[in-house]
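Appendix B. One record, verbatim.
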Amino acid sequence: MKFTKLSLVAALAVSSAFAGGDIAPAEPVVVEAAPESAFEVSANLAITSNYVWRGMTQTANSPAVQGGIDLGYKGFYLGTWGSNVEFGDTANNLEADFYGGYKNEIAGIAFDIGYIYYAYPNESDAFNFDELYVGLGYDFGMVGINGKYSFAVDSNADTTDYWEVGGDIELPMEFTLAASYGDYDEVGTNYLVSLSRSWGKFEFSVAYTDFSSDASSIYDEDHIIGTVSTSF
């Protein structure tokens, strides 16, 4: 939700001149538009049939309710996002992410540089980890492409680097087809294909994801996911 102050134009009412009974119009008074605030606040909410991250379910193939809030100022941003999770033999049932960075574009090429911290409150520091990331994107009009590299930061979870590339294309009837491929170093690879469409303030999407484990095929996963989301 972007805070914007609307311009207001006010006209002074006419006054009566007693001589001859004429009505003399007054000069209009224009109130200058207030400058638009550079601060931006936005929020998002989603319900999904399965929270899948980098191809791997985070809710044991169960639904999730997710949401976040973001603050922005001239390209700089801070935000937080959360979701319920389910890892089976742990007491943890919540993921809370905190992130910040800077995004802009140069010669039509969008870039995003930032930091994210993944926190699992009920597991103390056992599961927590963080990453630095760099993303690039370019919009050709009906087709867009993007890429992102996430650098693992030292953590108790002993995480590794991750990269992904993707793209999307506008289809008839306002549908969007998107696809991505990612490689999680020493963990596995994944790909995703999704079809989405917006109706009013809501976006509906259906996606297929596939994960191939580097350790053993017994850890491979594939999922069909339905999601309804909105932002404001």
